[in-house]
Amino acid sequence: MNRKLSTTNDDPSKKDQSTVHFFIDTIEVERLSALAFFEAGEDAFDGKRFFWQNREKNFTLVGLGHAYTIESNEDESRYETVEQQWKALIAVSNYKDYPQQPILFGSYTFDPKKAVSNEWSHFSHAYFALATHQLVIRNEKMYVNSHIVSREAITVEDIKRCNAERDELLHKAQVRGSKSYAKLHVTSMMEPYKEEYLQSITQVTDKIKEGVAEKVVIARSLALEFSAEVTASNVLAQVYAEQPESYLFALEKEQNLFFGASPERLVLVKDNKAYSSCIAGSIKRGATKEMDDQLGQSLLNDAKNLQEHQYVVEMISQSFKENCINYTVPTAPQLLRIRDIQHLYTPVEGDLNEGATILQMVANLHPTPALGGSPRGKAMDMIRDYEPMNRGLYAGPIGWMNAEGDGEFAVAIRSALLQQKKAFLYAGGGIVADSEAMSEYDETLVKFRPMLRALGGQLNDD
Ligand SMILES: C=C(O[C@H]1C=CC=C(C(=O)O)[C@@H]1O)C(=O)O
């Protein structure tokens, strides 16, 4: 076990120059379920927890409690604000003395120019947290970090309290394990603004034919109600069991839980290399292997989907060209098959320019034409004008970064917002000149399916 008292330096907030103290403690643990650790925080840290697992399942991060939060409602500068505050906080830490670095986790809304409203009113345009107790499981090794950040001097008593709290959580998680939950009971399912959505597809298609934009992604929501309050641990356990091949994420803010299972990497930065993925163009899975292969082949040869995909490849390649010394992009897409859907997929990777950071990449890449459109500015204007809802965190960047600037962000699709007895699910699709409203509608039904299944809801054809 490593143990050190806090280090101090200037305040990370630009506004206040008083001293900040940052205490870190790391212990290595064994036999701990990430879900059980999340659940163990249910009483003491309700509303202040997060969960992340990467697509490859070799990195899991769970956060309980907030040692430090960074929020911003700025438009252009929200990426910079998070970056500066995190760097300033890290500068006062002695993280190099520990086997596990502190990690900042959080998410950005899809569109900072659109005021957060309706179900999203509790969230900021940037919402990040350093956990009080942070579990990291990486390549079979497990570490729990505890963090205290304070303007007051950190006393031996504070550290004792923090360690006792951690030991209590570990005991709870190890002894109880993760619970098994009864199936959730949905009492109503509504499609808000269905007519407006169908109409918006026609309007957007007409505008694209007029040459206003090439591609615009339009989304809609489903609203569910349950017979009883649904807990975050319950939902997370369902998502965990149901979506083995995606990024899993969950982020609490007070009584709100934003969660999902996304196939889409926005960017991974590791040892000065950057990796992104172009995912656009979709078709359902087939009931038999033959049907599945036929559907996959027809997707690989479908001009409309290839066009939708190509806009994403061009934009992400351009971003890599600007931010990397060199980069590689395969010449043709392959299939990415996940439980409910198949996508066209092109991975992109490159060696980052000196000094380029993960949040600069996130700012540069988001929104790709897989969630916004092409050209970006025109597509965003059309989403603001025609899409009949507020996306909030849906389709925004969600992920983490460590003290040395490595990290990963996914695009928060296949996602939902849970508010006790209510949930809102979100899905969209790329609209090009020859898109048809009803087939776009059907595609959203396929994309709703993972979160709907996790929440115990059913579509007519299930
Ligand atoms: C907008 C969504 O998916 C995007 C990502 C992959 C494929 C897409 C498509 O084929 O339209 C969408 O661009 C969503 O899942 O809500």
From TrEMBL:
It is an enzyme of class 5 (isomerase). Its EC number is 5.4.4.2. InterPro entries: ADC_synthase, Anth_synth_I-like, Chorismate_C, IsoChor_synthase. GO terms for biological process: salicylic acid biosynthetic process. It comes from the Bacteria. One of its GO terms (molecular function) is isochorismate synthase activity. Belongs to the isochorismate synthase family. This is isochorismate synthase. It comes from Kurthia sibirica.
